[in-house]
RNA sequence: GUGGGUGUAGCUCAGUCGGUUAGAGCGCCGCUCUGUGGCAGCGGAGGUCGCGGGUUCAAAUCCCGUCUCCUACCCCA
């Protein structure tokens, strides 16, 4: 084959559909319970939406954006993340005149030109949830709660919430200055990567994986960001914690939380999965507050908090925790014609059955054994056998594949019979259950 | 972007010391097969041995390059 998917992209095949649908439908049900409206922004936008938002020093902008120029000479890029586009949409459509807050959820592909590896693709997919217009710490807590609810409804349990605060811009500036002042004298002892970080983003040094860096930090007794929070950011941080505690949502305060995107303010959090299967990509959901973003995009001040949740990593977690994924609907009936004259008749029966449930009919006559075997391979529950007898008498011969029990139903009662069947095993039923569960 | 590993049929994999027309199992299609069978037997389709160079009388096999995927970094969901 000459063509194949390009590096870091993959085809989502029918065999994977159940997991993806579980994620999307669970997100829909859970997040709409929080009042979030479904939003889909374009897959590509003016490059400025993302580059201004993320900041020129971020790795995403520096080396990971799929930027291109279209025929009109516009500088565009494939979106590397969801938030900036949603804030742009909020501003563009005047959502500030809607009752506050405005909540958005989405499930969309994102694009980053990274080297692919486990839990990291060039086209990857995120569930996103944002609360816009509210600076209240209650919104931060609620957004974290929404993440908890989403994972809980998916059955994912083996994770820890890491909560931190990156403070307000002036706090961060002060802290970065402190880091430079503290680490510069020891510049020669930093790793090559950290030497670069000291210029660009000193906070990155804190979560360096290089032992010598960590040893140096310890030796110099480098203070955490949290000690540099201004009084407002500190009050905000404490209020968020108070809410989470009241809601019995466990979390650990993690002062090393750093953000790759410049627009974050105050609250930052990551849901980190414990499974070794997610080693190196254990952050399954991450987000924070970005009160300055709207202004960066040229709009009026609009506080916001939100998170993104990586679907590919969610799938790894679902697999690691061996979570039962509800199967998609399979055919209720597979209609078998026994002679040439019955083929069209068989398809007529299948059409009738499709008014109620998924149904198939064979396109050619085969031996009965093969035909029943086909029915089973297609996952059908019942085989409906059509031959001259059935056509003449208008009585359908129905065989339940699993039990091998056979019985007859007259053609006129067939519709009624279809409705009596149990469809309880499919995902749709599962979602109905989920909704009922949330109702309670 | 850097390092390591990898690549033969749709899938899982054989393929000797470099040797002539590259194999198996499963799957797919067909026949035996005319309504109680899901079996079994037989047959068929499907391959630029990732791609491109090189060495050689001869390359899936040896050498170089390149790409993919996996993986560790950087970084991130």
Describe the structure.
By secondary structure, this protein is α+β, with helices and mostly antiparallel strands. Helices cover 39% and strands 20% of the residues. It folds into 2 domains: 14-167 and 229-320, Bira Bifunctional Protein, Domain 2 (BirA Bifunctional Protein, domain 2, 2-Layer Sandwich); 333-422, Anticodon-binding domain (Rossmann fold). The strands form 3 sheets. The protein has an 8-stranded mixed β-sheet, sandwiched between helices. It has a 5-stranded mixed β-sheet with strand order 13-12-14-15-16, sandwiched between helices. The radius of gyration is 28 Å and the shape is elongated. The protein binds one RNA strand of 77 nucleotides through helix 3, strand 6, strand 10, strand 11 and helix 11.
Characteristic key phrases:
RNA-binding; alpha+beta; 440 residues; Rossmann fold; eight-stranded mixed β-sheet; BirA Bifunctional Protein, domain 2; 2 domains
- CATH class call of the largest domain: Alpha Beta
SS strand fraction: 15-25%
* Major sheet details: 8 strands, mixed
Termini separation? 53 Å
Unreliably modeled segments = none
Instruction: Examine the coordinates and then state which fold CATH places here, giving the name of the CATH topology of the largest domain.
Output: BirA Bifunctional Protein, domain 2
Mean pLDDT metric: 88
CATH architecture of the largest domain: 2-Layer Sandwich
**What is the total domain count?**
2
Helix/strand/pairing category: alpha+beta
What is the global morphology? elongated
Total DSSP E strands = 16
Radius of gyration: 28 Å
CATH superfamily of the largest domain: Bira Bifunctional Protein, Domain 2
Helix content: 25-40%
